[in-house]
Specification:
By secondary structure, the protein is α/β, with parallel strands linked by helices. Strand 7 and strand 8 form a beta hairpin. It has three domains: 146 residues, no CATH class; 103 residues, no CATH class; 155 residues, 3-Layer(aba) Sandwich (Trna Endonuclease, Chain: A, domain 1). The protein is elongated.
């Protein structure tokens, strides 16, 4: 059983959703991953915190697991696949921003009072309090909030089917745990289209248990809009930063864009709103982290270990493609033999701009912008080409021609030609001005060998 599946099993049962009774087991798993993340941070060089650390495998594993924990809060809640996917995206971004704060807070602890780097065990001991604060104290409230948001988002989907046919009514649990300011909202009744629900739809705070139900218009009188808005403002008066003024069903997010780990400007961010044409392009450290996380989210897929490396198969890769088996074998070779981090990427035809940027962003501004190479290996792109021609020379020529349109690093199926002939042909192309950095041969047994490498830089 995989880590994420096991973690979801721990968090996903009904008893835990009510009581969080197996918190110790969860904490143990998170602490183990926290230690691995701190090892990655410890290995960083230089005196400045580098945001690139967020993309390292150990950090990504921690983020994904934390996100999966939050996802499990609503795995039993009925909702559309689209809503579920968007709520899960929200959890991933939230978990990533939270992890960035943990890393940023831990970084100064690398150095002792004399300016020397501490031994790792001392550093790890010094940052234990960060793990305890973020992944025990905060996680409980975040999990509960995520669960409440998802429940209310699913309800909103149901309300949308009826529109204003019914009114919506705010309800509390009506017990001694209800906050007085929330109790004042109990039985506020308004049409679904009223702007009140954009601002004061539950949850309206950490550990808020309020809900909303549909009621017949003839049964309850409508609350005057201005009165409802005044009560809503009073109910959230302690939320000085306005974090909870959002509707998870409308925004399709478990956490608002402006939360304890982001900044107020996130409310107006075009990227967070998924817009294609950007009127505001943020430029600061938090925004750089956010964009990096969104790239990672777009690259998300199934990951497996192979030797000292990893192979990730992007979620959009079509496993029924005729060349998928070959590409998977090539990826496995680079991971096992070179300890590489390898990603198989999807074939895309006229993809949305942001989606292309997330997956193939490093190609933007190069001669290969708009192209979709097959494989990403330790930060560089490779294109695989096979052949159908029975003429070996034609096969070789076609693979070189077609492959170089996509990328300057190629992996080709070996035709029945001598390596000397192929090498001479490649060098001839380079002398004629063609950009070729590497050419690898995929043998019939699935192994891969380097045929040519440009050493001129």
């Amino acid at each position: 059983m995989g880590l994420h599946q096991r973690y979801a099993e721990i968090l996903g049962n009904e008893a835990l959703q009510a009581t969080f009774s197996r918190e110790d087991e969860i904490r143990e798993e998170l602490s183990r991953l926290f230690d691995g993340m701190m090892k990655a941070l410890y290995k960083t060089e230089g005196s400045q915190f580098r945001i690139e650390i967020i993309e390292s495998p150990k950090v990504q594993e921690f983020i994904s697991t934390h996100s999966d924990a939050l996802n499990s809060a609503f795995q039993q809640v009925k909702m559309s696949d689209t809503m579920r996917q968007r709520l899960q995206r929200s959890n991933y971004i939230f978990s990533g921003m939270k992890t960035f704060h943990e890393l940023n807070e831990a970084f100064p602890a690398l150095i002792d009072e004399n300016g020397n780097r501490k031994p790792f065990e001392q550093f790890l001991n010094d940052v234990r309090k960060i793990d305890n604060t973020y992944n025990k104290n905060y996680l409980r409230a975040e999990y509960n909030f995520c669960q409440a948001s998802a429940d209310m988002a699913a309800k909103w989907e149901g309300f949308m089917q009826d529109g204003d046919r019914y009114n919506l009514q705010y309800r509390t649990q009506r017990d001694n745990k209800v906050r007085p300011e929330h109790a004042a909202l109990d039985r506020v009744t308004l049409p679904m289209s009223d702007p009140f629900w954009q601002e004061y739809y539950p949850p309206n705070g950490w550990n808020c248990r309020c809900t909303v139900v549909q009621v017949r218009k003839s049964k309850f009188p409508e609350t005057p809009h201005e009165e409802a808005m005044s009560l809503g403002e009073e109910a959230t008066s302690k939320d000085k930063r306005g974090i909870f003024h959002f509707n998870p069903g409308i925004e399709q997010k478990t956490f608002p864009d402006y939360n304890p780990y982001t900044i107020k400007r996130c409310k107006d961010c075009d990227i967070a709103k998924g817009k294609i044409k950007l009127t505001f392009v943020p430029d600061n450290e938090l925004c750089a982290i956010c964009k990096s996380l969104r790239r990672g989210l777009a690259m998300y897929g199934e990951t497996r270990s192979e030797g000292n490396g990893t192979v990730t198969i992007h979620q959009f890769v079509n496993r029924n493609d005729s060349d998928f088996k070959k590409l998977n074998e090539i990826a496995t070779f680079f991971a096992r033999e070179q300890g590489a981090e390898v990603i198989l990427t999807p074939k895309m035809s006229r993809p949305p701009k942001f989606q292309y940027e997330c997956i193939y962003g490093s190609l933007i501004g190069t001669v290969y912008e708009g192209k979709c190479p097959d494989i990403w290996v330790n930060g560089v792109w490779y294109e695989h080409e096979g052949f159908i021609s029975t003429n070996p020379k034609n096969a070789f020529r076609n693979m070189m021609r077609d492959g170089l349109i996509q990328c300057d690093r190629l992996i080709i199926d070996r035709p029945d030609l001598t390596e000397r002939f192929m090498l001479r042909s490649i060098i001839g192309r380079v002398k004629r001005g063609e950009a070729i950095k590497e050419v690898w041969l995929r043998e019939k047994d699935g192994t891969v060998k380097l045929l040519y490498k440009n050493t001129d830089g």
